[in-house]
Amino acid sequence: MNEVDDAILEFFADQDDGLVLSPALIWFNLHDRLSVIEKSHETVARRMRNLEKRGLLEKVDENKGYYAMNQKGRDYLAGNLEADDLRLDDE
User: Fold this and answer.
1) Which among 2, 28, 18, 29 is positioned nearest to 70, based on CA atoms?
2) pLDDT per residue over 14-69, tens digit each?
3) Cα separation of 91 and 75, whole Å?
4) Domain range list for the chain
5) Given this structure, which CATH class describes domain 3-78?
6) Cα 49 from chain centroid?
7) End-to-end Cα, the chain, rounded Å
8) When you count CB atoms within 10 A of the terminal residue's CB, does the N or C end of the chain come out lower?
9) What's the predicted TM-score (pTM) here?
10) 55 conformational bin, left if phi > 0, alpha if psi -120 to 50, beta if neither
C-alpha cells in the first residue's frame, strides 16, 4: 500500500456511497482538479487493479473497468485491518 492507494480510497470515501468510477475519472480528479497526486493515469489504473486484487475495491464492469469501494476498503481507511489482511498470496 502506498500514498496513491490511500488517495484513491479516500477519494471514493469522499463521494456518495456506491459511486462507480473508472481509473481515468479518478486520475483526472486526483491529478488535474485536486492536485493530490503527480502520478500518471497508468499508475492510477495499475494501483486500482492492485486494490481490487487486495479486496479493497470491487470491479463492477469487466468490459469498461468501472470500480466501487467495498466494505473492506472502508475498513482499511478506518484503520480496522491488519497488514496481513491486505497481503496477496504471492507476497
Assistant:
1) 18
2) 987 789 999 999 999 999 999 999 999 999 999 999 999 999 999 998 888 999 99
3) 21
4) 3-78
5) mainly alpha
6) 8
7) 13
8) C
9) 0.91
10) left
